[in-house]
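ASSEMBLY PREDICTION REQUEST
Request ID: AP-0331
Submitted by: J.K., bench scientist
Number of chains: three
Total residues: 702
Priority: normal
Notes: Please return the full assembly, not individual chains.
Input sequences:
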Amino acid sequence: MAKTDGNIYTLIFATVMVIVVGGILAGLAQGLKPAIKENERYEKQQNILYAMGVHENGDDTGSVNFIPTERVEGEYKKYIKQSYILQNGKLTESEEAFTVDMKKQSKLPKSERKMPLFVGEREGKKFYVIPMYGKGLWDAIWGYIALDQELVVQGAYFDHKGETPGLGANIKERYFMDDFIGEYVMEAGKYEGITVAKGNNDPVNNTKDDNEVDALAGATITGDGVSAMIKSTLKSYIPHIQNLK
Amino acid sequence: MGLLSKKDQKLIFDPLADDNPITIQVLGICSALAITAQLKASIVMAISVLFVLGIGNVVISLMRNIIPSKIRIIVQLVVVATLVIIVDQVLKAYAYTLSKELSVFVGLIITNCIIMGRFEAFALGNGPWRSFLDGIGNALGYGVILIIVGFFRELLGSGTLLGFKVLGDPIEKTGLYSIGYENNGFMLLSPMALIVVGLIIWVQRSRNKALIEEN
Amino acid sequence: MLEHVELFFKSIFIDNMVFATFLGMCSYLAVSKKVSTAVGLGAAVIFVLAVTVPLNWYLDQYILRDGALGTWLGPEYADYDLSFLSFILFIATIATMVQLVEIVVEKFSPSLYNSLGIFLPLIAVNCAILGGSLFMQSRDIQSAGLALNYGISSGIGWFLAILAIAAIREKIRYSNVPAPLRGLGITFIITGLMAIGFMSFGGMLTGGDEEEETTPVSEVTPIEEITKEASEELVLTTNEKE
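STATUS: Completed
Returned structure:
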């Protein structure tokens, strides 16, 4: 072992290791990038469609079933009619809406932020799908929420980067997301948002006009994150949606 | 068991009980607490650690004669991190749905001290085959505790197992709930994992008096 | 200034490394038999966190982050996103720092080395240290000063936790704990109870955490008015298109 203790050997070993590891990882990241990017695009399309109710959920089981990746591209074109970007209070139609990176945008000052809006049509009804981005307990959370013209939630999809499995991670379970359907984001003519509330005496979520859905046990901070994310994001969109009728 | 000598069998079976990584060696506690609110997450974590520890132990063992002792900790950490990142990236490209399920665990695995602990304590001084067995054994011992804790926390906390409502429906008041049983939401919170592990230690040491500590 | 104070107390009590996020548990449980050793390890953790978190903040800001290279290497590098390297780079910084500190302390203050030295290698594998850097990254700490503050205060939180449990363990030696629970078992359970106690600090968090641009209710423009303004704007933009 003595030969491995010298300073020069250590230095050479460290250099070689850094180069080898760096090379492997960089090569891998570069080589897999196209495949990963494509997967991410499909996922985004699936999520947007899911929020507006285009999915393959059965009636009974509690699992989330997206449109399969092979078909999602076509379905997306079929249902999503227009996309807009909302920037500094102005809504402009733009094809770029799909490629807007919510994470990057969330770091910009409010006036420069590009906020996408996707308008879909299903069975003659219009859906306004709004992407959201916020913070949970550990890391980022994001999602899509679909409103109709009356500002009633038609569907929601949430996802997260690293919430605790079994607790905060349950925001992407169907029973949580389904609770949002039918909730009204206005309260007596004023914008109210939707709050993930504990102990609201309505665990089955029968009351739809209370602007509240039932929280997840043991995931207070993640739930608060979801509330804050919905509240702050939808606010900017509301007047525009009423206009797009 | 012609394949494994007696000594090799010991490597696999000791960590399952008498030399358990969590309850005796005190390794890998953080993740054991974080993810055991659900049985499914516990199982996924146990399998991931099985892979990483088995392969990582072999890699470190193969490199044991060329790693400079001064920077061995960096080398070990880099090996784990590289392994995990490679797996993560490949899954993201070719099995995207699976990678979504596992992405949460990536960070937890790299920071899991059970992996470093076994590298340091075993793989650095033993051959690849024995290191592999040691890795498998310890990962299994770790997994067993994780699954026991996950089982109780999910059953008592949400009344489900792997998502199935085994105790009836708490909202419709069927099954056990019809006679006034309530879920103990407290079980879902992380502090209860500590207490459950404490109880497991109690049970284990009452059965095997040799493990009892002096004070 | 206020944000420093807020971050400081939040990291010590509300987001306590041990009781809220359960990081650094292994060394916390293993090295808490005596108060004196606990103090040594705790101090070392504070020190290492205080050094590595700001260092990793700079790494994150100028190398790892999406587009970070573009800010100082020129716009042609702005497309690189090296964030997949963060684990490895953070770990490398930590391990290097720990080894560096060990060498320096050994050279200049042998007495300090004797009391602290044995803990230093232990620290590199303490997940609280890597956790500190990863949280710094995922929580978007805004400045190097805040990162330093975050490192120190979460270190203090960890220090407090290990000090408390070591003191309890010294006292509990005189209690009649059931034999199988002695040592590790009872430590687990006490830590669980302490964590439940610390959860009450979480109540302090309600509200003020997210940066809410609070407009008092009376000032909120009724929706009809917003709509009117917006519709004028909107007509313009759609007209332009046509």
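REVIEWER COMMENTS: The CA atoms of residues 92 and 100 of chain B lie 8 Å apart.
SIGN-OFF: pending second reviewer
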